Amino acid sequence: MEAISINNLSKVYKSGKKALDGLSLTVKESEIFSLLGPNGAGKSTLINILTTYLQPTAGKVSIMGKDVCTEQKSICCLIACVAQKESIDNHLSLKENMLFQSRLYKLDTATANKRMDALIAAFGLKEYEKHRIAAYSGGIKRRLDIAMSMMSFPKILFLDEPTVGMDIESRKAMWDIVKKIKDDFGTTIFLTTHYLEEADMLSDTVCIMQDGHQLVQDTPENLRQHTHQNTIRIDLDSSENQRDFGNWISDLQFVRGIRQEQNTVYANIQNAAQDFHILNQLMMDKQIRYSSIGIVTPSLDDVFLSLTQSKGRSV
Amino acid sequence: METFNLLWRSVKWRFQNPVIIIMTLTQPLLWLLLFSTIFSGNQTNGNYTAFILPGILLMCVLSSSGMSGIANYSLKTGGSYYRIYISPVKKSSIVLSHILDAAVLSFIQIAILMGISFMMSVRIASGVSGVFLMALLLFLTVAFVAAISYAISHALPDENSFIALVNTFTLPLFFVSSALIPYEQIPRGFRIPVLINPFTHVINSLRRFVSGGLVDWGQFLFTVGLLLILCICSFVLAIHSLKRDSQ
């Protein structure tokens, strides 16, 4: 069964801004689905529609087979969302926050207490039970935020950029929690993120969107095939001016986009077999100093840049 | 049940932040203490504190319930507003819990003002039953003002414009009423706006309970009816503004 089905969805705000433009996608039950896109792509608008906060302008959206426009009440009981903004109440204790959430979803006291104990244990929050919420670190607060959202045992959990602003250790802890939610509770997870590494590591399916519509939706492995053999990696000598080189290579006709990491430049090109030799020759002619050059299997970063930049150029 | 869950959360916050209770109480308290002394050589019969008390109680309701909507701005800054909005809780319960929270704040202040008035020799002439009927009138006034305040907070973009608008209306509504001067002594030209002001009728009814002795049931029922209509209209408006906010 499809957990989420979106068909030709559009959203135009009263200001006239078109946030979503004919978006179509599907999310399978019990999978981790990641939504990627640059700022302003329409990710937050989409989450707001899926969580019944916003009404769509046009198109059909169903959650667990229920229509978001006509069956909001039923959908509210099936979903939970951890928004970007922290939603826990600092004036309540950890347990009070969780019990407040349980009463929003009309759970009886016995069930609420049972679930609360299970979630506190599963999310490693036991040691923080006695502390004041205001004293929690950002990572622990976010963990509690997710635990609260799990109190209703939602069929679908929306996570809007759950690791934004976290250090790497907290991010890794969060990834474990996301996997745990999927494995232990069978919850479908709909995730938005800016971290491609995160989407690559966690997701069963990745969707990249731009300008309010979907560019591509597939598994991370299949997505990498999109630019397979079409990325060239160049390791520059440290003496080479990277900015000048970046400008020069970007201006080449066959280069669709570049990504720079210190002395390494990844260039997305149209035809690796043909363009590799041309690029190599051009660099030698220009006497650019580099230690290695080769065709590489692209990362999800390359796929993202390839898709969003080629789209940007064509506009 | 869901209303009381939301109310429990708000009240818990309120008692951890008593400074809000004190801040909104300051102005009515100063009026009660200073003006009742300054204007004690009055044109009214008897105790001027007893005369001014209904107006001060109304001012208390206007300042505390009128400002109650400001809480929405801080709620929206965090994620808890969104979390509650997308939960299965009815929108009417969200508005009702807001009204009840405003009532808790207002009635704490009303109790303090009544206690101080008692110490200033004010006695409620209509007895215990009069106190309950006064509470009913004040609760309906709180409900009306808090629901309007809630609707305004969804219509205006930030706290500054909200405070400016509420302040623009609060004091004129207080002055263009019978809060400080008996209706009969108000200059003729001002009587029409004073009569149109619904709070004039609330003050007059409260005043009958405080000092009138015999209850004017006609006036009381008219005021209750008027407030009920205003409450229903403002409640519907508040729910509409809450739903519209997400569009």
From TrEMBL, chain A:
<keyword id="KW-0067">ATP-binding</keyword>
<dbReference type="InterPro" id="IPR027417">
    <property type="entry name" value="P-loop_NTPase"/>
</dbReference>
<dbReference type="InterPro" id="IPR003593">
    <property type="entry name" value="AAA+_ATPase"/>
</dbReference>
<dbReference type="InterPro" id="IPR003439">
    <property type="entry name" value="ABC_transporter-like_ATP-bd"/>
</dbReference>
<protein>
    <submittedName>
        <fullName>ABC-2 type transport system ATP-binding protein</fullName>
    </submittedName>
</protein>
<keyword id="KW-0547">Nucleotide-binding</keyword>
<dbReference type="Pfam" id="PF13732">
    <property type="entry name" value="DrrA1-3_C"/>
</dbReference>
<dbReference type="GO" id="GO:0016887">
    <property type="term" value="F:ATP hydrolysis activity"/>
</dbReference>
<dbReference type="GO" id="GO:0005524">
    <property type="term" value="F:ATP binding"/>
</dbReference>
<feature type="domain" description="ABC transporter">
    <location>
        <begin position="4"/>
        <end position="236"/>
    </location>
</feature>
<dbReference type="InterPro" id="IPR025302">
    <property type="entry name" value="DrrA1/2-like_C"/>
</dbReference>
<keyword id="KW-0813">Transport</keyword>
<dbReference type="Pfam" id="PF00005">
    <property type="entry name" value="ABC_tran"/>
</dbReference>
TrEMBL record, chain B:
<keyword id="KW-0472">Membrane</keyword>
<keyword id="KW-0813">Transport</keyword>
<feature type="transmembrane region" description="Helical">
    <location>
        <begin position="20"/>
        <end position="39"/>
    </location>
</feature>
<feature type="transmembrane region" description="Helical">
    <location>
        <begin position="51"/>
        <end position="73"/>
    </location>
</feature>
<feature type="transmembrane region" description="Helical">
    <location>
        <begin position="162"/>
        <end position="183"/>
    </location>
</feature>
<dbReference type="InterPro" id="IPR047817">
    <property type="entry name" value="ABC2_TM_bact-type"/>
</dbReference>
<feature type="domain" description="ABC transmembrane type-2">
    <location>
        <begin position="19"/>
        <end position="245"/>
    </location>
</feature>
<feature type="transmembrane region" description="Helical">
    <location>
        <begin position="124"/>
        <end position="150"/>
    </location>
</feature>
<dbReference type="InterPro" id="IPR051784">
    <property type="entry name" value="Nod_factor_ABC_transporter"/>
</dbReference>
<dbReference type="GO" id="GO:0140359">
    <property type="term" value="F:ABC-type transporter activity"/>
</dbReference>
<dbReference type="InterPro" id="IPR013525">
    <property type="entry name" value="ABC2_TM"/>
</dbReference>
<keyword id="KW-0812">Transmembrane</keyword>
<dbReference type="Pfam" id="PF01061">
    <property type="entry name" value="ABC2_membrane"/>
</dbReference>
<dbReference type="InterPro" id="IPR000412">
    <property type="entry name" value="ABC_2_transport"/>
</dbReference>
<feature type="transmembrane region" description="Helical">
    <location>
        <begin position="217"/>
        <end position="239"/>
    </location>
</feature>
<keyword id="KW-1133">Transmembrane helix</keyword>
<feature type="transmembrane region" description="Helical">
    <location>
        <begin position="94"/>
        <end position="118"/>
    </location>
</feature>
<keyword id="KW-1003">Cell membrane</keyword>
<comment type="similarity">
    <text>Belongs to the ABC-2 integral membrane protein family.</text>
</comment>
<dbReference type="GO" id="GO:0043190">
    <property type="term" value="C:ATP-binding cassette (ABC) transporter complex"/>
</dbReference>
<protein>
    <recommendedName>
        <fullName>Transport permease protein</fullName>
    </recommendedName>
</protein>
